[in-house]
Amino acid sequence: MGNEVKSTKDKIKSMKGKIIILIICIAIIYLLLIYGCSKPKEETRSGVKLVEETQEINSGVGVIEQKQKKDLYENCADLSYNIKRCSPYKCKSTDDLTKKTIIKEIIGVIDNKCNYVEKISNKIHLDCKFTEGMTGAISKYYKDIASLSPGSVDTGKKYAIDKSDKEGVSNPIEEAVRIGQCIKPISY
Fold first, then answer.
1. What backbone phi and psi angles, to 5 degrees, belong to 67?
2. How far is residue 114's CA from residue 135's CA, in Å, rounded to a whole number?
């Protein structure tokens, strides 16, 4: 009789463990169903559309394709704000000279550099990896350019690239190309 009670207690302990594991599994499945299958609420804002794009990421072992949805702003009013912070942002504008659409995208910080690209006709026109000082200068430059008449690129100002820069440059984008922080794979 003593062995039967001990055996029953062991069975109950064993079942308690299995029941706890079963409850945890059910909770995990429930959370996956609730959060994994529900679609995120899409924001509808004036001048913004959600686009799906494929991005190739070099993982060091090979290229990984990553599909993601990003907001595409119909104008680049917030470009200077986001480039200063290197916040992911994507917008489109029209080149005043060629009348072609330019997609401007801040990808974000990779290897302590702000990654930024400009595409014309789905071809990369400008591929940049800005230092912190350069993002500040470019942010100010884009902010000033936005207040000029269409087609103007000369603000009449000088922009310091870093704290030791006493003279500054009149066009930080051209300076970034000159010093190798940007490359221009194609001409337009």
1. -95, 135
2. 7
Q: What is the pTM of this model?
A: 0.59
Is residue 171 a contact partner of residue 153, using CB atoms and an 8 Å limit?
A: yes
Please tell me the distance from the alpha carbon of residue 47 to that of residue 51, in angstroms, as a whole number. 13
The pair of structure tokens assigned to 6 is 């001990």
- Per-residue pLDDT of 53-87, as tens digits, reads 444 444 444 443 444 445 788 888 899 999 999 99
Mean pLDDT across the chain: 76
| Contact (Cβ atoms closer than 8 angstroms) between residue 157 and residue 187 | no
Q: Which residues of the chain have pLDDT under 50?
A: 38-69, 188
How many beta carbons lie within 10 A of that of residue 29, not counting itself?
A: 11
Rounded to the nearest 5°, which phi and psi values hold at 162?
-150, 180
How far apart CA 64 and CA 56 sit, in angstroms, is 6
